[in-house]
Amino acid sequence: MSDESKRSLMPEVTFSTFVLSLASSALVHLGEVPNPETGGTERNEALARNAIDVLTMLEDKTRNGLTPEESTLLRDVLYELRMKFVARS
Description:
Elements (H helix, E strand, L loop, with lengths): L2 H7 L5 H15 L15 H17 L6 H21 L1
Helix pairs in contact: 2-3, 2-4, 3-4
């Protein structure tokens, strides 16, 4: 498969897809969803916490610079991940 073909299979990189990608990673590390590479469910709280911390940093650094939709997405994703993290800890 050519590099161009591989790129066409990937979603467009936007702030929202980036946030959702980090959120998906956190969910995998929390054991909430299977790892797409292995199909297995595993927990790694340190990596989950890291993904949540990256999203928190993005929220802090992008304050007042996001569209209302982006801001809502980031706030809602962080809330859900934090609640799942606390529930699993």
